[in-house]
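We include the entry.

. . .
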Amino acid sequence: MASSPCDIALKAALGGQLRLPKRMAKKVDLRRAEDDKGQTALHFAAAKGCLDSCQFLVEESELDVNSATKTGVTPMFYAAFGGNVEVMRYLLDRGADPSMADDRGSVSLHNAAEEGHCEAVRLLLSKGVHVDPMDHRGMPLHLAVAKDHVEVVKVLLEHGADAGADVNVHGYSGPTPLMEAVDDGLMDFVMILLEAGADPNIPNQHGAVPIELAAARGQCELVEILFPKTKPIPSQPVWSVNGIMNTARSPRIKHQDASSVEQRIADLKSRGKEAFGKEDYITAMYFYGLARATRPGAAADGHSWRGVIGARRPDPQTLGAR
């Protein structure tokens, strides 16, 4: 079956072409051309960073800069994901709303922060977007920390991102940015977050604070960094860096019933798997990290979940399918 003019125009936009969409515009109203996910030619042109195509589609074919897919994704969302700053500026100048969220609460700033696009992050913040929007994965600060984007973290903090927020009270089931940084042994991030006001006394849902997690991982330098700002923990017999490290090294886990330990590990992995299935990758790696910490020396199923997050992130062509 021959492709319709709409299909041809969409495929051409997806490939970054302009000539074919211009030709098809004479045969069909491109404003009505979309795929089964609700993606328009403007979505594809924005994803590809094709400024001239975006200009044609908006100015001559009159496509809506805020057109949303069936899952609420806009062209700006795609442009931010790719760090296509020129396209972002153009869309903003034409009235694009950078605060429009998809059906999971994600906005363009989440994408720009997660992908490490500093200039895109600065542009969005210069337009007054909220620096700490919450989606199913957390705040942009969470995503930047999880992907090791230190410059983006600095930009977000410069613009007032709340490094000390207890996000768990807002229904978010994953770690705070500081807990995330400690979990991954990111010393630079820990120092940056503490300097910005992150509270090292906020426990995770299992009652552990960052210094305990650092000690459980054998990260003495992190314990030293966290110690001055962490309140004494009653369960710690000796409140000192050495005392905390010695307690973490003690064979407490050996005195626990082996079956209860295995059950806890299985439960943590199950919760991680459930979060992973929902593409809630930050929470998933949090639970798998707890599983590793519960059984010292053991990895969670032998996978690097930070790597899996990157591997499972959809490319701009499939974002609308989420």
Observations:
- The chain is about 50% helix and 0% strand.
